What we know:
By secondary structure, the protein is mostly beta strands.
Amino acid sequence: QVRFAVTAGRLDNPVAVTQNGVARVILTAGDLPAAALVTANLDGGRAAPAQITILFSNDTDAVEVGTQWVR
C-alpha cells in the first residue's frame, strides 16, 4: 500500500492499495489557487518517496489538462 500526503487541496483517501503496481487517489482542489506538493510513500520504506507539485489555478488560460504519473 502507498501513503499519500498533500500540502493543498484534499485527498479522497490518504492510503491506497496497489493493483498491478499502481496506487490511485483523487486530489481535489481547495477554494483558493495554490501549489500542492503531493508525496507518495510506499509502506515499509522499501523505496524513496515520490513527489510532484500540482498547481491549482483560477486562471482558465493557464490551465493545463493532462495525465501525469508519479513513478
